[in-house]
Amino acid sequence: MLRTKIYTQPDITIDQLATTLNLSTNRLSQILKEDFHVNFYEFINSYRIEDAKQQLRAPAGANKTIM
Asked: Domain map of the chain by residue range?
């Protein structure tokens, strides 16, 4: 996830992520639910939020706002 930053794709789907990870969609969904206790959208959004926080903290983000 961190290497490819696939979560930055605005229209990413669980099918696309499963294909990238060489998993079936059902298996990926099961892993997210059982191991991470989240659904696909919560999983992707957690990476997006962390990425946004890092960008805002970086010197280059000094003039950026949350908007």
From this structure: 6-59
Spatial separation of the C-alpha atoms in residues 24 and 17, rounded to whole Å? 10
Multiple choice CATH, 6-59, 1.10.10.60, 3.40.50.12780, 3.20.20.70, 3.20.20.80: 1.10.10.60
Per-residue pLDDT for the chain (67 aa), expressed as one digit of tens each? 888 899 999 999 999 999 999 999 999 999 999 999 999 999 999 999 999 899 888 888 778 777 7
Per-residue pLDDT at 66: 73
Rg over alpha carbons for the chain, rounded to the nearest Å, is 14
